[in-house]
Design goal:
Elements (H helix, E strand, L loop, with lengths): L3 H33 L11 H17 L3 H21 L13 H24 L13 E4 L7 E4 L3 E5 L16 E5 L3 E9 L20 E8 L2 E6 L3 H15 L3
Antiparallel strand pairs: 1-2, 2-3, 3-4, 5-6, 6-7
Length: 251
């Protein structure tokens, strides 16, 4: 059962997610219609792109609303497209100077879109509380000493995922960068403390060599394998995992 704090976070987060997925396209549509109002005859075709983006945002929002790792990518794309198109579109009014600013305007739109998404992430996950296990959100943790590697705790599975780097792509199988187990396959979750001198093994191929760091970590046992996952949020992660594992297993 969600606490008042978790309920408050959920409402605030979903408001910001709605702004990212639907608000940015609506601003885009409004700007295009306003500029088009000065054109004779009225250029209604220019509204097709923002309308398509609005439909896409509606479609994606229903699928991404509980997936924080998706929000920033959509915010960057929507913001960049909006900024780029709005910079060039005044040409229909014989106003050419905004087109020379297309790069700053595009970057500004991208930064605003990503900023909104990151704000929603912070509202949801800072600080992480065990009660988030009772929500539908996919909760992700960046692992200490494993650059670009994250642990995602879903409602039915847990995934450790690395990110491919351009310099390391040759000969690297993308399937080796991630590993997913159903929560029902996890047989144990334990909190440990690392000295930083351990040589740890991971169930994925890491695009960047790990750096040993001292501090808390979580051992996840699944299908005969042990994951040792360094994270400063180990105590909370153990509680989250145990709560979701208990919810995923039939009574």
């Amino acid at each position: 059962m969600n606490t008042p704090e978790v309920t408050r976070r959920h409402r605030q987060v979903q408001l910001v997610v709605t702004i990212v997925y639907l608000g940015i396209p609506l601003v885009f549509l409004g700007a295009v219609l306003w500029i088009s109002s000065g054109v004779t005859p009225f250029n209604w075709q220019a509204g097709l792109l923002p309308l398509a983006m609005l439909v896409l945002g509606w479609f994606l929002r229903s699928r991404h609303r509980y997936k924080p790792q998706r929000w920033a990518g959509v915010g960057a794309f929507f913001g960049a497209v909006t900024g780029l198109f709005v910079a060039f579109y005044p040409i229909v009014l014989d106003v050419y100077w905004p087109a020379y600013l297309f790069l700053p305007v595009m970057w500004l739109g991208m930064v605003l879109g990503v900023g909104l998404a990151r704000y929603a992430e912070r509202v949801l996950l800072v600080p992480v509380v065990p009660e988030l296990a009772d929500t539908q959100y996919e909760l992700f943790f960046r692992l200490r000493g494993l650059r670009l590697t994250t642990l995602t705790v879903g409602t039915e599975s847990v995934t450790i995922q690395g990110r491919a780097m351009l310099r390391n792509r040759s000969g690297l199988n993308p399937n080796d960068l991630g590993r997913t187990y159903p929560l029902t396959a996890i047989t144990g979750v334990h909190e440990v403390s690392l000295t930083g001198l351990e040589r740890l093994k991971y169930p994925i191929t890491l695009p960047i060599p790990p750096v040993g760091t001292a501090g808390p970590a979580v051992i996840v046992q699944a299908s005969g394998e042990d994951w040792v996952l360094p994270t400063d949020q180990a105590a909370t992660l153990v509680q989250l995992l145990n709560r979701r594992i208990a919810a995923a297993r039939p009574e």
